Amino acid sequence: MTQAKNGDTVRVHYTGRLEDGTVFDSSVNRGPLQFTLGEGLLIPGFEQAVIGMSPGESKTAEVSADQAYGPHREEMVVEIDRQEFPSHFQPEVGQQLQIPQPDGRITRLTVTEVSDQKVTLDANHPLAGKDLTFDIHLLEIV
Which whole number is the average pLDDT over 94-108? Predict the structure, then answer.
């Protein structure tokens, strides 16, 4: 039976869970994910888990933080004086901000703490530092 290898375009269904079992993403109600193995568009641990699978096969893969979104880096957490924000801005914990950069890229930040004087912003990916579990079903090699 054919097995998925680098360079193959595959279609999979997946469900991603945190260590406590919380589902953070799933393709099951959206339609399958199609990607080419080896292009590096997905986290390395997910791609590695699909390599060697055959169409119709399902598996559960444990992906460590270093093979997912990397470690949570403290240097990507900043504390800003409230007075630096526009007066109409009312920050709330969990709020997502998008800041355009001079090179055209967008930096995504999450408000993690709010006080009368300071707002703490985190530029880490929300899943940085977390080990992930994926239930993967390889539908086909396109």
Answer: 90
**Does pLDDT of 19 surpass 80?**
yes
Domain 9-70+127-141 has CATH 2.60.40.790: no
Residue 138 CA: distances (Å) to CA of 36, 50, 132? 13, 7, 18
> Which pTM value belongs to this model?
0.82
- Residue 56 in contact with residue 10, Cβ under 8 Å? no
In CATH, which of 2.40.10.330, 3.10.620.30, 1.10.3720.10, 2.40.400.10 is domain 75-122? 2.40.10.330
Q: Assess whether pLDDT exceeds 90 at residue 85.
A: no
State the DSSP string of 94-131: T-EEEEE-TTS-EEEEEEEEE-SSEEEEE-S-TTTT--
